[in-house]
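Session log. Operator J.P. requested a structure for one protein chain; no other inputs attached. Running the standard single-chain path with token output.
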Amino acid sequence: MEVYHTSIVVVEHPDTAHSRTFLDFGPGFYITPLQEQAVKYGARFTHRGKEAFLNIYELADDLTPWKVIKFEQYDEAWLDFVTECRKGRVVGNYDIVIGGIANDKVFRTVDLYFAGDISKEECLRRLIFEEPNNQICIRSQQALNECLTFKSSQRL
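Structure written below.
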């Protein structure tokens, strides 16, 4: 499957060492199968006057050798996982995490929950109407090395 990662540099040899800690699924290398989503993310860089590159990879079709967790919707399991990861805690011993991204609209709702302004139930009630985008976080370097192949990049 073709997947994308946007950065201020060409990333031919991705690694997990340069990841930030407080992300949706914890530290790792984030990719998406949605090119439009990756291009929109690149606008964050270009609006600040930086270069942005759409890095294109091939993700292995068979992920069964790896410990994978997949969230199909914005539900309590997803919310609990993201909450812990955004606190800087690594949840589970997963090589790969797949699920919805906390885009701006979703994150506003989740942020209200994090701040204690709405209950978990209210947060979940609001999220049920959101269609998840898709992100994949490869959290182990070995899985990254064996599952992802750089194809090309293009300046945005």
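Operator note: The first helix runs from residue 35 to 46.
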